[in-house]
Design brief:
mainly alpha; 2 domains; 9 helices; 0% strand
Length: 218
């Protein structure tokens, strides 16, 4: 094209460097300063940022479906903590037996809770025995793992509530034989609970120290 006013306009394909190529190669055409090229670079960067599309995450469509567990597999996680239910139920039954303000039906309600607690304790004990039978390795873990071991005390406390509830609800409706049976049961319970407290806490605090592996080297 002919020059107009002393300014020459390049023809298409004449080798005039494009804005992108000029910025990348560092070659600046006549009449184009480095400052203008820097501004073009910033504009290109902004365009690339705003044109960026975040990838779509469809992980929730590929989440694994929950698998159903058998009763035997669930029993592997059936722990001594379940005895807390019999401990609390027996405690409520005993409270009902010593409430000073009595009314008709209160003793019957307490007796019902006491009998229900006996069935509940039997069911939990059967489930625990079945757990140790199907998963023998859990027997040692139940005593060596503090997260479960501390709940063994709920077993003894459940027995204690049953002894006291038998005294409250059983003695008035039974013969003198039950008094002797309760006396023997009390001393057996006292000896076993005391031995368990001494031996188990000795294992926890002396033999098996409650120190996390992450803190052993500190």
């Amino acid at each position: 094209m002919a020059a107009q006013g002393g300014i020459g306009y390049p023809q298409p394909g004449s080798g005039y460097p494009s804005r992108t190529n000029s910025a990348a190669s560092g070659n600046y055409p006549a009449g184009l300063s480095r400052t203008n090229t820097s501004g073009m670079r910033k504009q290109d960067d902004l365009e690339s940022v705003f044109s960026y599309e975040k990838p779509h995450h469809d992980d929730h469509h590929h989440a694994p479906e929950p698998t159903s567990l058998t009763i035997g597999q669930r029993l592997e996680h059936f722990t001594f903590a379940w005895y807390a239910s019999t401990m609390s139920t027996g405690g409520v039954a005993f409270v009902l037996s010593v409430v000073p303000n009595r009314f008709d039906g209160l003793t019957g309600l307490g007796t019902t809770m006491f009998v229900f607690n006996l069935f509940l304790f039997t069911a939990i004990t059967a489930a625990m025995c079945l757990r140790f039978y199907l998963h023998p390795h859990t027997f040692k873990l139940a005593f060596s793992n503090p997260h479960e071991g501390f709940f063994i005390a709920t077993f003894w406390l459940s027995l204690a509530t049953m002894i006291t509830n038998t005294t409250a609800y059983g003695v008035p409706k039974s013969g003198p034989w039950i008094v002797g049976a309760l006396r023997v049961s009390f001393w057996i319970y006292t000896v076993l609970a005391t031995l368990h407290a001494i031996i188990y806490y000795h294992i926890l605090f002396v033999v098996k120290k409650l120190v996390s592996p992450l803190h052993k080297n500190q």
